[in-house]
């Protein structure tokens, strides 16, 4: 007798306590992302103050200004250290949200490859802009950074990986 087909993931599924916990965590992460985006100026001010205090404590306050001088204004007008910290925080929250919602190691591996590819492309474009003094490379890198540090990848990847790449059938 052939095995029954697994139930498609887009149809309603019976609820379990683990699902409720997972979706509650997803809602909290979504709220954190929303708050981080809405109050980004206050977050940047707090990050600037934190890094400033830490660098003064370590006696490296002038070092941050030296690093900032080598960065084109086409990439960022804020402190490079603060932008990096904010970007890592926002991206980490997005990756956590994707991990919770997708609930699959295989899908998360694909998400990490996509995010890693975009970050690598940004790094290559910034280096091209630096070496060749190419404004177009800086502008394109800025657009990619704006894309990856936004909710847009989450909005695209959740339906793409959840519904168009179903979980493999469970072997019993």
From TrEMBL:
The record's keywords, sorted A to Z, are: Membrane, Transmembrane, Transmembrane helix
Q: Which domain of life is it from?
A: Bacteria
Listed transmembrane segments: 87-105, 112-138, 144-164
Name of protein: Uncharacterized protein
Q: Which organism is it from?
A: Hymenobacter persicinus
């Amino acid at each position: 007798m052939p095995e029954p087909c697994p139930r498609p993931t887009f149809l309603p599924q019976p609820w379990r306590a683990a699902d409720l916990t997972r979706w509650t965590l997803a809602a909290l992460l979504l709220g954190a992302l929303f708050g981080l985006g809405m109050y980004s100026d206050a977050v940047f001010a707090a990050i600037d103050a934190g890094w400033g205090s830490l660098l003064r404590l370590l006696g490296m306050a002038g070092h941050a200004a030296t690093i900032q001088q080598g960065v084109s204004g086409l990439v960022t007008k804020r402190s490079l250290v603060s932008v990096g910290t904010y970007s890592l925080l926002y991206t980490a929250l997005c990756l956590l949200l994707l991990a919770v919602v997708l609930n699959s190691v295989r899908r998360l591996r694909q998400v990490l490859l996509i995010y890693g590819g975009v970050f690598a492309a940004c790094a290559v474009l910034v280096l091209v802009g630096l070496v060749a003094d190419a404004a177009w490379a800086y502008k394109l890198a800025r657009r990619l950074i704006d894309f990856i540090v936004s909710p847009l990848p989450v909005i695209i990847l959740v339906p793409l990986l959840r519904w168009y790449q179903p979980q493999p059938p469970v072997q019993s």
